[in-house]
Design brief:
Blueprint (H helix, E strand, L loop, with lengths): L17 E5 L4 E5 L32 E2 L9
Parallel strand pairs: 1-3
Antiparallel strand pairs: 1-2
The structure holds iron/sulfur cluster (SF4).
Length: about 70
C-alpha cells in the first residue's frame, strides 16, 4: 500500500509571501498576500506554477502552529 505524498508547492516554496501552517492533522501553505489582496487565495492550490505575486525569499523554517487569523480572539 502506498501512502499519499505531499504535493510539491511549486513557486510558493521559494516565495517570500508563503507561510506554512500546521494543524494536528495536516499542513497547509498560506499565502500572506491574500491578507491584503483579494486576487490571492489564502490557501493556493498546489503546485503553483505561475504567480504574478511571486517574490524570491522563501524561508525553510519551522512551520507555524495553527492559523492566527482563525479561531478565538481576545
Ligand atoms: S504570492 Fe504567489 S507564489 Fe507567493 S505564496 Fe502567494 S501564491 Fe505562492
Amino acid at each position: 500500500m502506498n501512502l499519499p505524498t505531499p504535493r510539491p508547492p511549486g513557486l510558493c516554496e521559494g516565495c517570500a509571501h508563503r507561510r506554512i501552517v500546521r494543524t494536528p492533522r495536516s499542513e497547509f501553505l498560506l499565502c500572506e498576500r491574500s491578507k491584503h489582496d483579494p486576487a490571492y487565495v489564502r490557501y493556493p492550490r498546489l503546485p503553483v506554477l505561475a504567480c504574478p505575486g511571486f517574490e524570491p525569499g522563501g524561508q525553510t523554517g519551522t512551520p507555524d502552529q495553527g492559523d492566527p487569523d482563525r479561531g478565538s480572539r481576545g
